[in-house]
Amino acid sequence: MIKEGSYLFVEGQRTVEPYRGKYAVKVPDVFDRVRQGWTAAGLDPDSPYLPMRIEMELTTKCNDTCQTCGMGALPLAEGRTLTDGQLRFLLDQFTSIGLPSLAITGGEPFTAWRALLVLLEGARDRGIDISKLTTNGIWGTSRRCGPVFERLEKAGFLDAHLFVPLLMLSIGEQTTPLEDVARILHHAVTHYTDKELNVAVSSLADPATREHKVDELMAVYEKAYGGFPHDRVHSTMRVYLNNERLDGQAPVNRPGQTPVSRWMDHCFDCFAPTVGAYILPTSLMKQDGCWYSCAAFNVPEKLAFGNFLREPARDVLARANDSAYIARVRAGRGLKALHDVVPSSYTKNTTCTSFCDSCALLIGQHDAITGEKTGHPPAPVIPAASLLTRVQPTGSAQ
Prior knowledge:
Blueprint: E1 8-10, H1 30-40, E2 53-57, E3 61-62, E4 74-75, H2 84-96, E5 101-105, H3 113-126, E6 129-135, H4 145-155, E7 166-171, H5 178-191, E8 198-204, H6 214-225, E9 233-238, E10 258-259, H7 260-265, E11 274-276, E12 282-285, E13 290-292, E14 304-307, H8 313-321, H9 324-331, H10 344-347, E15 351-352, H11 355-370, H12 384-388
Parallel strand pairs: 2-5, 2-12, 3-4, 5-6, 6-7, 7-8, 8-9
Antiparallel strand pairs: 1-11, 10-15, 12-13, 13-14
Helix pairs in contact: 2-3, 5-6
């Protein structure tokens, strides 16, 4: 399998090579084209924060009940899916901020099959690329696999202009038979080239054993189809993380907690325009419309800046660009920028278990020291008719 992190292209640091990396692009001038889109939308392309992608939660419904679900998915009877009207409205919102691409997640998007097709077709019609579609492979049965691929193609999943679409298969606690996951992988690599479709396997380690299912998946694949296509399948290996959006989740119990200062010093600049190994900056929009300036599973709640279903996306984005915390992190190329604000007596003596946990702690310290406030409280409900008149480009984000 191709390891995550291969072929990293950061704007201004290295010439972009098309068709390289898990999040490959189709054109070498991708950053210029994205900037042109922001400018056409009336935004300042040099703003501290403009998303290259929104990770969009289409539904909270899922056929599985993974105890450590990073997205906080709900059972089929309890989850909610964005309606057709909401999807059309959100796509217009995305157009108003010159959004280059969407990643579709859940829940499990394929439990909302009709809504997924509406979203794919609407994005294609507005020129918004689908750079990633995440699934647990529920549709990988012998009866459904081929027809689903055909319908995805018809709906425009492969019609991207800037990015090679990525099909992300998530395994771990999921109960989808690995035979079905292997069938999807085999169909993808035998029916499409790496210039049409990329494929990846995302595995969240078992919190008790820290073991992944990838080896088991490869064995199942090789038994059914022969050699595993290591040259086509990208990997995304993850560990169990705390997630403050999940009520009642047990805290992570990982030995060897690391000082905040060390997390800061090794933090990657997630706000720098980046393609290839990742697409950055990537934001998150939950099914209820809440928008975060980071798409990590355990993104701090204080990085929520508004609600795309309740207020114009341009206003929400402008609020993120007015954030002193985001401006400092962006200017300093990562969390190490906070060394100038948060004293070493705190960062060297406080420990946590991840970059995102350190980010949450640093936001609290930053706001307490500077007197500034990161994030935004939930927005009041605004009538849809009023919002619809405000989603067109009218000015520049500051």
